Amino acid sequence: MAKKNRGGAPGSLRIIGGEWRGRRLPIPASAGVRPTPDRVRETLFNWLRERVGGARCVDLYAGTGCLGLEALSRGAAEAWLVERDAALARALSAHVEKLGANAHVVCGRAEDFLARPVGTRLDLAFVDPPYAQPVEPIIAALLPLLAPRALVYVERPAGEGLPDIAGTEWHRRARAGSVEFGLLASG
Known about the structure:
- The protein is α/β, with parallel strands linked by helices and 187 residues long.
- The chain is built from five helices and nine strands; from the N terminus they run E-E-H-E-H-E-H-E-H-E-H-E-E-E.
């Protein structure tokens, strides 16, 4: 789902760490996405430092794919990048091919992806839907697909805050500008 851009170089995404550090990847001009800011990604991946290596990840509402691609750059084993906008999904496929990333681009709705098993339990999930969409039903559908000790990244507008979700607890939380974000620990 397309989201508004909030900063960074227009038309490109920068990988900030790992194997592809400093690589800039083009974003379709008409995408209108809001990639997770570099500052937030740096904090998130500092939190995940010990957990990202070898992880199987899903980036729901991938947009630019900045979270899933960043995880792969930092040693994640595999990622699913789920994006319903066809132009963004094509751009993600081109990035995956260019980087030689072990990623599966899924052009479709996150809800449909969650309704079918991927054949493995997920260690990390990135959930950053359009801000008007509630995250609680998405996380409820995601929980059965998670491995024990899995972590779920959630990003919301600061005024709205991070919701409490049954079967999970907040492992880490922070705020940067108008964004509140955190890691949920499953079961």
